[in-house]
Amino acid sequence: MSWRSLCKALSLSLCLTLIFANAVGAQKVTAGQPCKITQQKVLYKGSTYTCIKNGKKLVWSKGIPTPKKSVPVPTATPTATPTATPTATPQAISDVPGRGPTGRFQYRFINGLMQRKNVDGVWRSDDSRPVSAFDQIRKAAFDSIRSAPNSTPNYSFIIRNNIAENYPSDLAGHIQNAIQDFNKLMSQYLTSNVNVDLILLTEKDDRFLREDLPRLLNYENYVFILDNLKSYATQESFYNRSGTGGGTAGFIHSENRGYYLGHTASFAKMETFWPEIAPHEMAHVLQFYLSRGYFSNCGEGQECSKYHGHSVEGSANTLGMAVAFPLLAWYSDEMDKILKDGIRAFKSQISVKNKDDAISLFRLIESRNTEMSQEFSYSAGQVLWEYFIGTYGFKKWIEFNSNIPKTANFGENLKFTVGIDKQGFYEAAAPYFLSVWERLAKEG
After folding, report:
1. Which of 37, 46, 401, 424 could join 420 via S-S bond, C-beta 3.0 to 4.6 A?
2. Separation CA 440–CA 380 (nearest Å)
3. What is the pTM of this model?
């Protein structure tokens, strides 16, 4: 049918609509590709794409199919009025994340853009939940950690790659990119350039383990990973151990050198990759750079200690989560997941029903001498330090770690940095922590 005959059958307004849609739809659009004008909508191949902000970038959202309008058919009766058949409203794309083979949320990167698979198997680079859906303390912590420097930092983490031959190359690339993302945000807090040895190996890299690793690290810095490497012998044992791999990191003050030792199975793939690990380990490099190297004046959990389990691992988790995931919603989902997993795993051993229970848990995770306190030093500790950062700002976290050499113990450092002692800090953080715990416990 020609355009002339088609316009005779349709109203003039419908013709103009079709012509306009074809003109806009002529632009090729791909989800995740850069765009220029925020909230611009483009019709392409029957789907509507929206220009959305993802982190600092403007990208096209996943296309939403545009329902077809029925066309009124002219009738021979002059008084007849054409009617349109009602169309179904498109179902919203789910924000609920799907889970991979080890129970973790799944991510991938397309042209450097992170995507997450939802419960329906759809890969998304956006999330429809409004900022108002999340607690203000959570939002404040996320925003404060991700605040970009006002100018180009003078110093940076200089990465020296030491990657064993069996480490999966695609995962190594994602780790290197994650470290650069961390570098962009955190180098503003450095007072000198910092060399960091990135060391990546698998259970198959025996020669690297025997010959190269001892040149990079002292034995006591990596002896505890040997059991992990043994557990990567089969997929079943790999999944049972972690299903993603792990790492350890620190800073050697006498050499002005940091290290990040990462390990995974030689057969690991993107479906087992967890983006939080790399920035979590780099957070340890930053922690101990600021405190002039890790040292233990006395054991965790004692009044004389400068470090506690939750301040080491919990705050590194908060920082790692915020750097790893560019959307507040995804950061929040990951924060919730790890604490919910802990609540389920130890529900027969611990209950948090009031403020005093929350404070007791904070004291418990000052040391990591049991399986439960080790677990909650990460998951409950991250919420405790999320409160700290969301309340006082990330720069106060930087100050707190920088003040470790200047103060006698953890409590004195808190008082020096934010004007409140340890008991006061725990009491102030308890209501927020309790609200998060109760919400997750109800979700089951």
Report:
1. 424
2. 12
3. 0.80
Tens of pLDDT, residues 178-226 = 999 999 999 999 999 999 999 999 999 999 999 999 999 999 999 999 9
- 209-241: b or e for each residue (b if 16 or more CB lie within 10 Å)? beeebeebbeeebbeebeebbebbeeeeebbeb
Question: What's residue 399's pLDDT?
Answer: 98
CA dist 138 → 24, 144, 145, 318, 411 (Å): 40, 10, 11, 10, 24
User: Is 291 in a helix, a strand, or coil?
Assistant: coil
339 backbone φψ class: left, alpha, beta (φ>0; ψ -120 to 50): alpha
For residues 280 and 313, the answer to whether their CB atoms sit within 8 Å is no
Tell me the C-alpha distance between 254 and 366, whole Å.
Answer: 28
DSSP-assigned states of every residue in 191-207: SS-EEEEEEEE-TT-HH
Is residue 196 within 8 Å of 255, Cβ to Cβ? Answer: no
Q: Is residue 244 a contact partner of residue 274, using CB atoms and an 8 Å limit?
A: yes
CB 251 within 8 A of CB 86: no
What CA dihedral angle connects 361, 436, 342 and 174, to 10 degrees?
Answer: -120
Q: Output DSSP code: residue 55.
A: T
Contacts of residue 338, defined as CB under 8 A and 6 or more positions apart, other chains included, come to 317, 378, 379, 382
H-only helix segments in 291-327? 309, 315-324
Burial class of residue 26 (count of CB atoms within 10 Å of its CB; 0-12, 13-18, 19+): exposed
Q: How far apart are CA 177 and CA 73, in angstroms?
A: 57
Distances in Å between the alpha carbon of 444 and those of 185, 202, 343, 378, 437? Answer: 35, 36, 9, 20, 11
Crossing angle (nearest 10°) for helices 136-145 and 315-324: 80
Quote the percentage of the chain above a pLDDT of 70: 84
Rounded distance between C-alpha atoms, residue 11 and residue 5, angstroms:
12
Q: Which of 309, 329, 316, 230 is nearest to 280 (CA)?
A: 316
Residue with tokens 């940076």: 156
